[in-house]
Protein 1
Amino acid sequence: MSKMPHARAGQVVGLLGGSFDPPHSGHVHISKAALKRFGLDRLWWLVTPGNPLKARGPAPLAERMRAAKAMMQHPRVTVTDIEAHLGTRYTAQTIAALRQRYPAVRFVWVMGADNLSQFHRWQDWRWIMETVPVGVIARPGDRISARLSKAARIYRDDRITGRASHILGHLEAPAWSFINVPMTDQSSTAIRARGEW
């Protein structure tokens, strides 16, 4: 288990959660885009012990952590198993625990547009939207369903333009930005289906 990552007061830290089962170049791609477009000082990969919305459990955490660290080589990105360390299972619990441990750090939740489409199914999703700014990165095929999602409709007045996305971490929640980036179509599901994991 890795130790808690370091962050200085006033820093803007992006949180990218997922099972990373397995991690792939698409994760690296959106991480670099998030750092640049959302004005993040740091980005933490939160490699989850398990996803409550998925029936089948992922590969062992130690295996996914090893693969993630080998895949994501960037001085401002830290691969963590922080949720196993904190004992949290849901994103809202993790965010609450991190805000308590790092009261002077500004967190931004980062997710792919595919997650925004079903965000209203997440536990305490409104609390997440109203607690931390949210940066959404479009992946191929997810743009329309994400823009029409329940979360996008309810919080439509809190959306900032892609041009202003670099100030996201300095805004009070609710605030979110939806950016389009040239995307790879890599997916963990496809990699597992090909038997490459």
Protein 2
Amino acid sequence: MRGLRNARAAILDSRAARPHIGAMDALTQIERSYAVAEQVGPLVRRVLARNPSPFTYTGTQTYIVGAGRDVAVIDPGPNEAEHLDALVEAIGDATLAAILCTHTHRDHSPAAGPLAARTDAPVIGCAPLTLEDDGPRADAAFDPDYRPHRVLEDGEIVSGDGWTLAAVATPGHTSNHLCFALPETGALFTGDHVMGWSTSVVSPPDGDMTAYMASLAKLYAREQDTVYFPAHGPAVEKPRQLVRGMIGHRRSREKQILRQIEAGRHGIADMVPHMYKGVDQRLWPAAGRSVLAHLIDLEKRGVVAHSEDRWLLSA
């Protein structure tokens, strides 16, 4: 258990900065409670999917909300038989009132259709979105089969026996990203927008740093949220403190990028090795996507300009 605590501590120390591959490897070597419903808070159970990776941490966490005659499932995860069977078993005799998806990356929404077929539950939540992403994350490709019965707008609610889930639009990681608030307990299900172990990859063309920063500011203003349940990593028990740190981290990244340009490094491939020295090189392509997102945001604000693959400070 000491190894587990130390590994988790290492990740939490770096969570506002970057993924920590060494610590992740240490955790995934320890037996995890896959395909088991675990109580993680009032009205909330978690089922962990067996899809660990450098981008999903120990796997996708599917949440079951409710303790009465009906329940909701948030982020049903990958279409894997073991995971689907575990969700159906955890739902038990309750009615599945809604299957909600925060966004349509393949580690979040593919099980929505199969779970709906087995339970007759409606798929509700984010809008469908499919596009060719030229980023490096094979596990973050969009789910082309996602077909919601109802798309939630910001502030719309889904309710059941003793629970209410309200959509909180948080574009940035993807343009269709939603969080879901559970006002009965002060919980917010944050998908990939805010995670307990690392910052989110923001990968253009759909990932948008301007929108991501605005969504972080939106969550920081929500004083009613007392705990975050992300799709990957541990619960966040001091959410506004973490969000404040994430905003500061992104501003620091901006300054790093400007210093790189001042030092004569005008291409993203030249910047990344200097900016991410402590990050496993397997993550450098993804880091480059976030650098690109920052540069696009800086260009919108008139701070930088680019010509072909060269980024320059604006005159």
